[in-house]
Amino acid sequence: MIQVLFKRKVVEDVLTYLNSKQAIILYGARQVGKTSIMKYLLKNYLKENAFYLDLELDNLLELCNKGPEQVYEYLLQRGAVKDKKIFLLIDEIQYLKDPTKFIKVIHDHHPEIKLIVSGSSTFEIRKKLKQSLAGRTITFEVYPLDFEEFLEFKEKKYALKAENSEAINHELISLAEEFITFGGYPGVVIEPVSEVKQKLLSQIINTYIRKDIRDIGNIRNIDSFNKLLELLAAQSGRLLNVNEVSNTLGIHSFTVREYLSLLENTFIIRLASPYHKNKRSELTKMPKVFLLDTGLMHLLHLKEFPKVISGEVFETFIFAELLKNKHPAKYWRTTLGQEVDFVIENGRLTAVEAKVNFQKVRKNALEKLAKEYPANTYSTSLQGKKQGIGRYPWELIKELENAKPIKEH
Question: Which domains does the chain have, with CATH numbers?
Answer without folding.
Answer: 10-142 (3.40.50.300), 148-402 (no CATH)
